[in-house]
TrEMBL record:
Name recorded for this polypeptide: Lipoprotein
GO cellular component terms listed in the entry, alphabetical order: membrane
Main localization of the protein described in the UniProt heading: membrane
Subcellular location: Membrane
Entry similarity comment: Belongs to the nlpA lipoprotein family.
Amino acid sequence: MGKKGIFSLASILIIFGAIVSGCASGGPAPAPDTKSAAQGNGAGTAKPTKEATLKIGAAAVPHAEILNFVKPKLKEQGVNLEVVVYDDEGQLNPALKDKQIDANYFQHVPYLDSVKGEKGYDFAVTTKVHVEPIGFYSSKLKSKDEIKEGARIGIPNNPSNEYRALVLLQQQGLIKLKDGLTTYEATPKDIADNPKKLKFVEADSATLPRSLPDLEGAIINTNLVLEAKIDPKSALFREDSKSPYANVIVVRKGDETRDEVKKLDAALTTPEVKKFIEDKYGVAVVPAF
């Protein structure tokens, strides 16, 4: 073999040796893929919050509006609040009993007490939210002093609100009820003294705003006043803030311990909700917490 062949063979051996040496020494090992490892064994991955749905039936105003105000806050806490508005409030308790909804928000305790025995409701009250001071409204009169003898006055025909209306008239000195009425129930038959010989038209609460043109006045629940676009400040007189008729959250007995119900109660009784109620409704709706 000539010198040229020897030189070429030596060059090949040197290059091959360098390659082998490089493979043996390696160099710095690559950093472990910690992200992939974490994903593989589940470490370091935040577990998604399990969302619970709470379906609540409500009157349109102000109940559903207040519920929708707290809805985003509850969403942050893992509660999907589904608000179902019932035009016929008389269906809200049957819907709760039949498990069509998880809770309702439209009534006060005297009303619930007046119907639960007859209907067999096994319900629990979880929290008080607001009072809607019931008031006397008229499209004809400007003051209480204009109520004349024999005036036709509309009042709700359900037991608890009828009593409530008559008590308000008594507080204003227009009638006097019999002594010993302790069950939050009364009708015009329980009036002991009626100096102006007022005539009472007992009607479904929801029809009273529409009946004002045919009456000298009517005692109407504030939520119905708001729905009818009547200015609540136009009441000739109304209940004061000491009214026992706070609207409450009602659930089936046993459900008051559910986590999502507790979160709802807490969300509805915050300073933010109090301010929302006061700013939006003024005298028409009064926080009860």
